[in-house]
Design a protein that fits this description.
The structure is a single chain. The protein has 115 residues and is mainly alpha-helical. It has helices at residues 2-6, 10-17, 21-27, 30-54, 62-83, 86-113. The chain contains six helices and no strands. Helix 4 packs antiparallel against helix 5 (62-83).
Length: 115
Amino acid sequence: MKIQQTGTTASQWYATTGTDCLTMVQKGGTTLKKNKLGILSLLTVAISIIFFFIVRGPNVNIILVVSVFTGLSVLGMIFAIISKKLWFIITGILLNGAVLGSAYFLLLAVGISEP
């Protein structure tokens, strides 16, 4: 149905995507779902950065910040692995790993600063 609306024939669809229309209909658009998971992986990094700039100052609850960073980065790594796209896996794990590393160093700093 969608092919008729866009004016693309089945042979043009196969030439551009490499899959036939019946296969795409049977899969139910799982490729879009995997791309959404990859984008969600990168979105967790963006949320972590925004959270860092919103919640800062001398009276910040560092344990809360570390918990949010850790939760978001682990969730982002899971989204990156589930997406099964190499580009999203590499960038998602690297960026979320950097967030997780900064959370670890914050936790280490809290442990050192407490008497």
